[in-house]
Design brief:
Layout: E1 2-3, H1 16-27, E2 35-37, E3 42-49, E4 52-59, H2 66-76, E5 85-90, E6 98-102, H3 110-119, E7 125-130
Parallel strand pairs: 1-5, 5-7
Antiparallel strand pairs: 2-3, 3-4, 6-7
Helix pairs in contact: 2-3
Amino acid sequence: VAGLGNYGLQGTRHSVGMAVLDRVAWQLAVAEGWRADRQCCADVAMATAHGLELVLLKPRRLMNLNGLSIASAAEIYSLRPEDIYLVHDDLDKALGKVAIKLGGSARGHNGVQSCISALHSNEMTRLRVGIGRP
């Protein structure tokens, strides 16, 4: 599960994917388990939920390069694109509204496009979090 955003710009609507991952880590009692992983240039925490092992990942790059971190992590943890969930902001959704999208185009989102390019696939599931048009 990768939270897209601009590392170092936490608290902005554009980095809501990272904020969602922080909340998930807290709810799964692994919030203290974040560690910097230099191999994939990301903060990583391991968790278990409903019998599934999860890799929570917050890229330490700008949004347009998030895909490089996610592709590296996919290789390290032997994940296929269809195993990956992207959590990202969506300008076209009202603030706080969420939607799940299975694969498809990036719809103009540079972080998602970076992931599609780096993984050579658009099969990732996306949790789109509405941020509205400020």
